């Protein structure tokens, strides 16, 4: 099946089995390996991407479900993602780093919908993303810092 994916602003027409998880299309066919495989069953968030602006677990969506849709991965860019990248860097958030692309995409989705999230609002969205190194406190601080950075620019 030919599937059209608009990933980070670039159109990719790929041939793939319709049931292939979107994650494998992104990683193995298109070659964007920043999005990670963790559990494969929607439990860890390592594979998080935005699909038409919605936070999804790409391990659990058949690639056919993304046909014609817009996808943002960690290799892409958006206003909130860039403020978050800066805050992540300033706060030395990652430890092993494996989950961090998923964390950044989830945080982007949060800031896309909630301008200045409270700790509870951060927990509500970010609790779906597991970090085995336990960087949760730094992640929370970095999300607040990204809001501060954004407000300084605006
Ligand atoms: Fe998709 Fe864990 S790899 S949620």
Q: How many DSSP helices?
A: 5
Strand order of the largest sheet: 2-1-5-3-4
| Count of domains | 2
CATH class identity of the largest domain: Mainly Alpha
CATH topology of the largest domain, by name, is DNA polymerase, domain 1
Protein name: Probable oxidoreductase
Pfam families: Fer2, Fer2_2
Keywords: 2Fe-2S, Iron, Iron-sulfur, Metal-binding
InterPro entries: 2Fe-2S-bd, 2Fe-2S-bd_dom_sf, 2Fe-2S_ferredoxin-like_sf, 2Fe-2S_ferredoxin-type, Beta-grasp_dom_sf, Diverse_Oxidoreductases
Can you give a write-up of this model?
It holds the Pfam family Fer2. By secondary structure, the chain is an alpha+beta fold. The protein folds into two domains: 2-72, Beta-grasp domain (Ubiquitin-like (UB roll)); 79-153, [2Fe-2S]-binding domain (DNA polymerase, domain 1). The chain contains five helices and five strands. Strands 2-1-5-3-4 form a five-stranded mixed beta sheet, sandwiched between helices. A hairpin with a 2-residue loop joins strand 3 and strand 4 (54-57). Helix 3 (100-113) packs across helix 4. It binds FE2/S2 (inorganic) cluster. Residues 37-40, 42-47, 57, 59 line the site of FE2/S2 (inorganic) cluster.
């Amino acid at each position: 099946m030919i599937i059209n994916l608009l990933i980070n602003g670039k159109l990719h027409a790929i041939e793939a089995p319709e049931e292939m998880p979107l994650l494998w299309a992104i990683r193995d066919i298109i070659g964007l390996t920043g999005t990670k495989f963790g559990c494969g069953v929607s439990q860890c968030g390592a594979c998080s991407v935005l699909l038409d602006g919605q936070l999804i677990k790409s391990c659990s969506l058949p690639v056919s479900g993304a046909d014609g849709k817009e996808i943002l991965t960690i290799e892409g860019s958006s206003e909130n993602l860039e403020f978050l990248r800066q805050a992540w860097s300033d706060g030395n958030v990652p430890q092993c780093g494996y989950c961090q692309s998923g964390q950044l995409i989830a945080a982007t989705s949060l800031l896309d919908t909630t301008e200045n999230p409270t700790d509870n609002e951060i927990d509500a969205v970010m609790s779906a993303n597991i970090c085995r190194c336990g960087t949760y406190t730094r992640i929370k601080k970095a999300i607040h810092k990204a809001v501060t950075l954004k407000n300084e620019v605006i």
